[in-house]
Write a structure and sequence with these properties.
This protein has 480 residues and is α/β, with parallel strands linked by helices. The chain contains 18 helices and twelve strands.
Length: 480
């Protein structure tokens, strides 16, 4: 069957599952009214069209089942109207379910929709999980969520693993929509990309599919490598942590107060089939370098790890007191790399062997300053024992946590462009500060001149008055 440039997508589900929000995410704009409500916001079927790449998509937003002011008969009638209208073009049905507890009400919703669709349409039906952001916040993968509930696990098996997850809150929406579309079209037309895309006559659908596949390839490619930048004070075990990740003593590591690393250095290795690059940086607060030279050298880590690091590891020694200096670390990093950097930052505690029976969670809980830093980094932290280079489990756990962070960031990395934007913002801030300082100086100079003029005038008036008094007195003396 020759694919058409237009594709119809019908959203079905329970009230408050995120049906309208998913429609907005797919179209990339606020096409449908979407807000939290115990009642269905959508009373009538709303239809909006848009493009994903070069593929025209028409989205049907339907009233949610349950908790609505409409009767069951009204809803069923509207659903049947949609089914008649949408199938003039290739059509898929997305059964929207919150990535939350799969309750009895959700299960009944699925059953009702299945009855409305019938067996043939169910072959073109996908499960669309919403609230992917909450899964990421809880550090739970979609597979772990599915496996938690036997009924949900059986449902996914029944649909031959046809499911996708949307984060309707993220700004990086294009990639997840393209991934959804490529899954749907490949399944709908049973396309094998290597053999059949080139045979598709319609240029728009062919280009759209190739673009989607290229985006997918780039995402897969990004999963095959990790670029990590180490940041922290001198002597906390930065270079040692890099050696632990690499599994070999590639980076110079000595216990010193002053930084052993005076310039950025880069090493890479292969872990579980993935290329991992580690960039070590001079110690923050290094007294051997001028502050501007230190900031410039540390910032160079972005270009060394081009096209940009996936993770900045802020290295702290687990036994250290968290002082005012440590508290300045996030401000220093933000000053160098911009506000976006903390989205890609992770706390890495070293000397984990010295924790003994204590837990790092207890340590964080007991220190509000440390807790604040961890929270600024999205509650992301890990513990290393750098004395145990052969313990690869601690490294694999770190990489998995970094993977979760990357997924939370929409699959991207900190980029050269972000750094340049941050530098431009810093320059603009500095220029504005200088302008403000110049205005302040001019204002002070103006006030100083006005004060001089005032004092001068008052002095002249006083001298004139004194002169007049003396003259009058002298005149009286002469008269006498």
């Amino acid at each position: 069957m020759e694919p058409n440039t237009r594709f119809n997508v019908v959203l079905l589900g329970k009230t408050m599952a995120g049906i309208s929000a998913s429609g907005n995410t797919i179209l990339g704009r606020e096409a449908f009214v979407s807000k939290k409500s115990s009642k269905s916001i959508t009373r009538d079927v709303a239809v909006q069209s848009g493009s994903v790449g070069d593929i025209e998509v028409t989205v049907y937003d339907t009233p949610g089942l349950f908790n609505t002011e409409m009767s069951e008969d009204e809803i069923q009638k509207k659903y049947k109207e949609v089914l008649q209208r949408c199938e003039s073009d290739p059509c898929v049905f997305l059964l929207v379910i919150k990535a939350d507890k799969f309750s009895e009400e959700e299960r009944k919703t699925v059953e009702k929709i299945e009855q409305l669709l019938g067996d043939e349409r169910l072959k073109k039906t996908w499960i669309l999980f919403t609230r992917g952001d909450e899964l990421e916040d809880g550090n739970v993968t979609i597979q772990e969520f599915i496996n938690e509930t036997e009924a949900l696990k059986n449902l996914i098996q029944k649909y031959d693993q046809r499911y996708h997850v949307l984060n309707n809150k993220t700004k990086e929406q294009a990639g997840q929509v393209q991934m959804l579309l490529i899954k749907i079209i490949k399944s709908y037309f049973n396309i094998n990309f290597k053999e059949e895309v080139s045979e598709i006559q319609n240029p728009a659908i062919r280009k759209g599919l190739n673009d989607c596949e290229q985006d997918k390839s780039e995402q897969v490619s990004s999963l095959s490598s990790r670029r990590i930048v180490l940041l922290g004070k001198s002597g906390v075990g930065k270079s040692a942590a890099g050696n632990t990740i690499l599994g070999q003593r590639e980076l110079i590591s000595l216990q010193r107060i002053n930084s052993v690393t005076s310039e950025c250095s880069k090493e890479h290795t292969t872990l579980s089939g993935r290329s991992v690059t580690v960039v070590d940086t001079p110690g923050l607060f290094d007294t051997q370098m001028k502050p501007e030279e230190l900031a410039e050298e540390i910032a160079r880590s972005v270009y060394i790890s081009s096209p940009g690091p996936h993770a900045f590891l802020i290295v702290l020694r687990v036994t250290d007191r968290f002082t005012e200096q440590e508290q300045q670390i996030p401000q220093m990093i933000e000053m160098m790399f911009g506000q976006e950097v903390l989205k890609y930052s992770f706390i890495l505690f070293t000397h984990g062997d010295l924790l003994e029976d204590k837990s790092v969670e207890k340590l964080i809980e007991q220190n509000c300053r440390l807790r604040d830093l961890v929270q600024k980094c999205g509650d992301r932290y890990h513990v290393f024992n750098n004395k145990d280079l052969n313990n690869r489990e601690q490294v694999n756990d770190l990489l998995q946590k970094i993977d979760s962070m990357i997924e939370q960031n929409g699959g991207g990395h900190y980029s050269n462009q972000m750094y340049e934007d941050a530098q431009r913002f810093r320059r603009e801030e500095e220029e504005q500060r200088q302008r403000d300082e110049e205005q302040r100086k001019q204002q002070e100079e103006k006030q100083r001149q006005e004060e001089i003029e005032r004092v001068k005038k008052e002095t002249e008036e006083r001298l004139r008055a004194e002169y007049e008094v003396r003259s009058e007195r002298a005149s009286r003396e002469t008269e006498r």
